[in-house]
Amino acid sequence: MNCLNFVFVPSGIASRERLDRLYNEHVKRFYSDPAWRRRFRGRLWEHRHSLWHMARHLPDFIAARRHFEPAKISG
User: What's residue 34's pLDDT?
Assistant: First the structure.
């Protein structure tokens, strides 16, 4: 991985799409953990100046959240 995407697919993974999906599921599971969210809320108060940056970049946060959502399969 080069911090943005995978540069090779290990032999145990069927495809790059599967690797991307597994990575996105892991990231979503990590940041959806209730314990992590509690720590985050506590740290927000400790670093109140960060709230301005979060509010300013709210559309980017929303776009990132949508990126890590599993793809909806129609049909």
Answer: 92
Amino acid at 62: I
pTM (whole model) above 0.70: no
The length of the chain, given as a count of residues:
75
Residue 22 contacts residue 62 (beta carbons within 8 Å): no
C-alpha torsion angle, residues 62, 66, 67, 72 (rounded to 10)? -170
Q: Are 50 and 44 in contact (CB under 8 A)?
A: yes
Give how far Cα 58 sits from Cα of 25, 53, 55, Å: 22, 8, 5
**Separation between Cα atoms, residue 10 and residue 74, nearest integer Å:** 29
> Tokens at residue 59, please?
């559309």
**CA 75/CA 70 separation, integer angstroms:** 16
